Amino acid sequence: MATSANPLHLSQDPAPGKILISALELQRRVSELGAQVTADYQGKALVLVGILRGSVMFAADLLRRIDLPVTLDFLAISSYVGRDASGVVRLIKDLDHSITGKHVLLVEDIIDTGLTLNYVLRVLATRGPESLTVCTLLDKPARRLIEQPLVKYVGFHIPDVFVVGYGLDYNQRFRNLPYIGVLQLP
Ligand code: 5GP
Question: How many separate domains does the chain show?
Fold first, then answer.
């Protein structure tokens, strides 16, 4: 029986919780990041590596804002179940192309503890890229366990809340929201 106590029941609503970052703010910031990346990598070819599935929208939008010879690849890792961190990260899908000798920009949706990013960066570093830096849409520094010196580009610093939308999910829902909203559980 569906009740209003079930958070997934909210998924029928177009707006689950408070809007933290509007669609317009997202697009403006992604444009700025694209311009910054374009300036920083002038004269170089770039490989954008997105992490499935949360960073799909951000990677696609950022890609369109980068005016360089750029390619796109994805890897997939296991992620959170519900609102809890399992603490276990696994590589589910590897890159399709070699990054050896390439300038790689890893595109993340959100950095929380930093454990996921730490794992992915260790994997990518073993492949011998020419350079390896990170662009994250969201940064939640409150719960950081591992510092991330390779994070050069941050879209927005946000407080310690669970957010959904623009690719970010709660149990696979809400990725389609055009904005970032705070998930509110009853
Ligand atoms: P970390 O390993 O840094 O703690 O967590 C990174 C991953 O946890 C993200 O890639 C994302 O999948 C998930 N995550 C962390 N915080 C949030 C959040 O507020 N909302 C959603 N949807 N996912 C989150």
Answer: 1
